[in-house]
Amino acid sequence: MTSFLHRSGPVSRYGTAAGTGALAVLLLVGICGSPAYTAWAASQTDPDSGVAFYLRLLAWPSWRLDADGQAGGLFAADLRAVALVVLAVALLYLLPAAQVARVPGSVSQFFSGWAAYVLAGGLAAVLAALLGPDPSLLRALQEASAGAGYGFLSGWIIGTASLGGRA
After folding, report:
1. How high is the pLDDT of residue 10?
2. pLDDT tens column, 121-150
3. Contacts for 6 with CB less than 8 Å, ≥ 6 apart
4. Contact 56, 42 (CB under 8 A)
């Protein structure tokens, strides 16, 4: 007698689409949000270049190792990056597009990963603006725009990483 929890068929060597997307989120925020990358992108790229704009955009969820005198301490300084990772991972698992899509497979995995990152970027920015120092509705709306823009322009990386897993 087989258990209803047991899936028959070959076991994949790869993780789930959400799992590979989550790993990509951790790497993207960990590397491109790091103090070293952020400083490099700000100082070593040409401000009038499209490639340089994109490299600086990738540093949007910057995190720090010290609060540098910011009100609220280190948590407030890193709130946007932490919220982005948590929300992106949660949304990657909550948006199972490949399971409910009419076109199953890689197309839905790609767009599900991308959409999760756009939503996570906007929501993380709003949370950071409202829970950080000097909260205001105007600042939250401005930050939401920046966060969603970041997610839209960099979410294809997460969507592509989601292709590496099974549905």
Report:
1. 45
2. 999 999 999 998 889 999 999 999 999 999
3. none
4. yes
